[in-house]
Amino acid sequence: MHLTDIISEAKVSILSHRLRYILTILGVVIGVMAVVIMIAVGETVDHHINNHFSDLGTNTIMVRAGAATRGNVHVGTVTTLTIDDAEYISALPGIQSITPAQMASAQLVYGNKNIHSVIIGAYPDYRDVLSTQIQYGRFIDDIDIRNHTLHAIIGPRAAEELGLPQNSVGYTLRIKNIPFTIIGVMRPRGDTALGSMDDMVIVPLGTLKRRINGDSFINSIPVIGIRLFPYADNDIVIEQIKTILRMRHRLRDNDADDFQIFDMRQIMESLNRITGNMKILIITVASVSLLVGAIGIMNMMLVAVVERRREIGIRRAVGACARHIAFQFLMESVFISSCGAVIGLILGIGITQFVGRIILGMYVPFSFIAIIVSGAIAITCGIASGIFPAMRAADLSPIDCMRRE
């Protein structure tokens, strides 16, 4: 008995009990569809998280100020970083760009329109550290920093909400009732790990501190942004930064750091581990529904063995081997699971793409992992659930089969 004959007879048997097999296939379809959807959810979350952090790059370090401490006891609430700290750090090998920065919230006014926006005070290197691209005009330069000029770079969404033209270079808007000349418009960027740059306005750091915030401590800053050269070792540079800051802040050995250092490489690695574990958990949970489908296949195949005793007895009587009988039932089980896997894959991919792209308007990656994993699990379940019924069918005696009939 050839393989093609066994497969052909398996198809005939399935088609003769369509409704029963369709209901059994439905269990596999739901299981595979659940696996595909869950994997798509995990891949989409992973994609959007990586997109938010990818612009910053793995060679970006952020240093944030903390409250002053002595002997692990807080002794003040002033920020502990200074512009001088940034200048000392900039002398370290491996530092490509560095910028002190500060943020504030203020009202922007142009004509009869106004919005609330985040204002960032920074140095020219902010453009390199945060990968900020200019679509029109220019970025702030050293002259702007030195003279505390009333110049501003505006995000495209903020400009649109104020009714400014796409190229609004040369226009004047008011920030806290102070007139600023727009010298640049940022390229649309969307959301990042630090928020949406499209809504923000960038001005010289000294201008923000003196004119917008009215700070008393002109030299103090809350954040220092650093971009390293590609060849630099993040861990070594971070240790050097810690040494410099502790020395400059005159911290004793038992004093805690009065600053925090965030390494984007470590953050991305941690997020990738979390999303990886989440995807494994999601696949595991979704696979339970496939187990239910596999039990349905086994139950249906055991019923088929009982109903087809006469057929089995006749085949054995005319010379069919036990392995042929077993293989036929096994092929029926695999065929059912394979059909369910294909239909489940099509429905799962279709639903995720439709809901993600059309309804939610977000990018959903097409994952070959979903195809491989769900297909492999479905076929494995088909084989596993068909082995026991196939062995039961192969062990039947032709005499007992004919007698019971």
Topology (elements, then pairings):
Elements: H1 3-15, H2 18-54, E1 60-65, E2 69-70, E3 73-74, E4 81-82, H3 83-90, E5 95-110, E6 113-122, H4 126-129, E7 134-137, H5 142-147, E8 151-154, H6 156-161, E9 172-175, E10 178-186, E11 191-192, E12 195-196, E13 201-204, H7 205-213, E14 220-221, E15 223-228, H8 234-248, E16 259-263, H9 264-307, H10 309-317, H11 322-359, H12 368-395, H13 398-404
Parallel strand pairs: 6-13, 8-10
Antiparallel strand pairs: 1-15, 1-16, 2-3, 4-14, 5-6, 5-9, 5-15, 7-10, 8-13, 9-10, 11-12
Helix pairs in contact: 1-11, 2-9, 2-11, 2-12, 9-11, 9-12, 10-13, 11-12
Task: Please give a structural write-up.
This protein is an alpha+beta fold and 405 residues long. It has two domains: 3-52 and 269-404, no CATH class; 67-257, no CATH class. It contains 13 helices and 16 strands. A six-stranded mixed beta barrel has the order 5-6-13-8-10-9. A two-stranded antiparallel ribbon has the order 2-3. A two-stranded antiparallel sheet has the order 4-14. Strand 11 (191-192) and strand 12 form a beta hairpin. Helix 1 crosses helix 11, helix 9 (264-307) crosses helix 11 and helix 9 (264-307) runs parallel beside helix 12. The radius of gyration is 33 Å and the shape is elongated. 36% of the residues are buried. The mean pLDDT is 81.
